Every structure is written in structure tokens, then in C-alpha cells.
Amino acid sequence: MRKLFLFLSLNVLIHYVVFGQTISGTVIDETTKEKLIGVNIILENGEGTSTDIDGNYHLKTDIGVQNITFRYIGYTDHDENITLLKKENKTMNISLKIASEQLSTVVVSAGRFEQKLEEITVSMEVIKPALIENKNTTDIQTALEQIPGVNITDGQANIRGGSGWSYGAGSRVLVMVDDMPLISGDAGQVQWKLIATENINQVEVIKGASSVLYGSSALNGVINIRTAFPSQKDIDKTSWIKKYKNTGYTKVNMHFGLIDKPKRKGLNWNGEKRRAFKGFEFLQAFKLLNLDLSIGGNIFKDDGYRMGEIIDRKRFNINSTYKSKKILGLSYGINGNFLFQSSGSVMIWKSLEEAYMPLDGITTTNGDTYNIDPFIIYMHGNNRHSLRTRYLKVINDNSTKGVDNQQDNKSKIYYSDYQWQKNIEKYNLRITSGTTNEIVYASADLFQGNNFRRNNSLYTQIDKKWRRVNLSLGARYEYFSIDSEKDHIIDEDTI
Predict the structure, then answer these.
(1) pLDDT tens for residues 115-129?
(2) Residues of the chain above pLDDT 70, percent
């Protein structure tokens, strides 16, 4: 017969001290005056308490000199020395300073102004450049696929299952570089290869509709790639050579790999020669007087493991910002990306035995894509004016050896975005208003003609911070106009 014994042990420790003196008060943020919840108030003997939901605290202690520390994550510790008399009740209100070395992640995509990530009203993910560099990513799509809820299908971004691209309607997930859309004018497709992975500050992904600020292309979300600039402090101006050396940095990445030969002889179309892929990218950034400048590039070659699927890509970029000496708050500059690439693709392979060889022919695509973005920003008091413009040209020359196919396409985009922001600090209110204008010329052999498109829009958004609640309210008006070749005569030279 088995016996089961159950032992119960109860230990109770009661620590009871009676104090006749008290300290109480409120703890707030020194800058925003917001009451802080959960601030630790610690006495020298280890006793203490924390602030409640209204930022208030109440602490009983001994008579005499007391050393008190106010401690909160993200803020600098605040120490106080006070002397309490018998049965004295003392009120002490404290303001804590944010610790500069513990600043939160700052994003701009949600409201088109700098906000802490934890204060925005939409779901957002942020990718830091270290993730891209450590994985030797030469294509931004590879990094984006590591974000939960985001996947890339046939070159189109999908967020939380929403359609990334609709045939004839264009993108439903807006991809931007520095708040400027990077979408072709003919089919509305994202130009992933034009994005400079070597010069990224961070990638901000909004998981939800953002149509008020960004238009109908952002119905399922926004991916905003923010480029980096040198951020060194001012150096002694006695020597521009010294300034150049001390305020710049250089980054170089190289990679090389070999493609293994297939074990089945029928698939080894290349004989004994091994296929390889290799890449080289660089970035030079520096500050020279009032000029911030970065120049980068990427060269990539992939022989491919299938016959004819060779990728040869060369990409270069330049970013510049000049801060005016004469007009305080005025800055302007020009950014640019230039891509030259050729690639091969095959629709159908010969057979199971010769799976890596084409049946009919190899389609070769030679394409030049580039964008030039002049901009100007002026800040005066609590007002911010910005005008960003873009010229984007996409050229795709498709040809299949031995086949007379007409699948070439090319497009030009002229884009501008004017924005005005007003920050009313007294009421924790920010107003954002602006207008976007876009003109597109496109030509595609597949659609047997040219087309002309115009898009104009007006938008306004109000962001209000009320205690611990962040509110956003906005509206947008858009006008579209599309003319085919029958209705609108387009000169080929314009494309």
C-alpha cells in the first residue's frame, strides 16, 4: 500500500515600523511637465516608495538628515538632502531631466515630424542600419522580410496580408526614400534596386493605412527609408583640412561567394567552371563648413546558377545639405541615385533533365534608372516650410535572342511636395498641411502606346497630445487625370 504525505510550510515575516515624519509631492518631466508614473524614491537605508498614476508619492521616514534619490528609466537621477524634525510633514515636488544617453528611438514617418516611437498612434517597426550591414544585405528587400507581418512577393511589399500591388492601379504599400515615393511612372512598381543600402540611417515601416499624409498608394502601409548624414560636432575652423579629416568617415564592404556545381551531370551546363557572385560597396560622408555631403556606390555581379540569368549592377548615390550662413533656419540641397543594370531571365526550362537551360531564349533587360531630388527647408520660430521635388526616369530595354518581342517601357515623373507645419507648444498641438503634385509621361510597347497622368492633392493633419493620450485627425483630397495616346498627343522626346 502506497502512502502519500503532504507537507505544508508557512513562513511569515512581519516588518512593522512606525514613523512620525512624512515626505510627499509630485514628480514631473522637466521639459513637457508631464507627471511621471512609477518613479522610484529611495532612502539611504534602502526604504522607499514610487509615484502613483498621477505622479504623486507619500513616504514615511525617520527624523534627522535624509538622503533621497529619485530614479526613473530614461531620466537622470535626482538627489536631495533634507532634515526632518519630529512629526514634520514636508512637501517636495521634483522635476526630472531626460538622460541624453538614453534617448528613445525617434521616427518621422507617422506624422511627418520627429516623434518618439512609443508616442505614435499607429503600429510601426524600425530597422536600424546595423541589421542591414551585419547580414551583408545588398538588396533592401532581404532586410524587410525579417519584419513580422511584412513579406515581399514578386518584388511587391505586402503588410499584414494586404495587397502590395494592384494591376492597373499601382502600389498599395508606398515605398519612399526621405519622404519621397520611389515608384515608376508606367506600372507604379517599386524601384527596389535604386535604394542605396550602404547609406541608410533607419527604415520605418507603418503597418496600417496612412493615406492622409501620403495618398492612395499608402492604403496598406508605408515603408520609409531614411538616409544618413555625418553628425560630427563643430571642429576648430582654423584649418579646413583638419575639419575635413575630423568630421568624415568612410565605410567599405566587400563580399564574394561561389555557387556549387550540381551533383547531376545533366544540370551542369557550365562544365567545370564554377559560377560566382561578388560585390563591393562604399560610402564617404563628411562635413565641410556648412555642407553635409555623402557619396556612395555599389557594384554587384552574379553569374547565376542557371544559364543566362546574369545580373550586372552598378549604383551610385549622392546626398547633400547646405545650411545657409546668411538666413537662419534655411537649408537646401540635392540628392540623387543612379542605377545601371542588366539582367537575364528565362520563362520556361528545357526539361527535368536539363532544368537549368532555357527552352526558347533568354530575355535580357538593360535598364537605366535615376532620380534627382532638389529640396529646400526653412524653419522660423514654430513654423517649418519644406519643398521637396523629384525627377525620376526609368528605362527598360527588353530583348529576347531570336524573338521579335516588343516589351520595352520607359517613364518620367515630375514630383513636388510642399509642406507647412505649425507647432503650438502651449496646447501640445501640431498642424501639418501641404500639397503634392505629380506629372507622369509613360510609354510601353506592351500597351501599344503612350499615356499621360496628372495627380494633385491637398492634405491636413492635426496631432494633439493630451495628458497621456495622443490624438491624430486628418483629411486628404486627391484629383487624378489620365490621358491615353488617343486623347493626348505625347511627344516621344518628352519621355
Answers:
(1) 676 666 677 888 887
(2) 80
Q: Kindly report, residue by residue over 197-239, the tens digit of the pLDDT.
A: 888 888 888 887 777 788 777 778 888 888 877 654 433 333 3
**Global confidence as pTM:** 0.70
Statement: residue 6 has pLDDT above 50:
no
Amino acid at 176: M
Sheet holding 383-400, edge to edge: 249-259, 275-288, 291-302, 311-323, 330-345, 363-380, 383-400, 409-424, 429-444, 449-466, 469-484
- Residue 133 CA: distances (Å) to CA of 108, 129, 137, 143, 312: 22, 6, 6, 10, 21
194 Cβ neighbours under 8 A, 6+ residues apart: 182, 315, 337, 339, 369, 370, 371
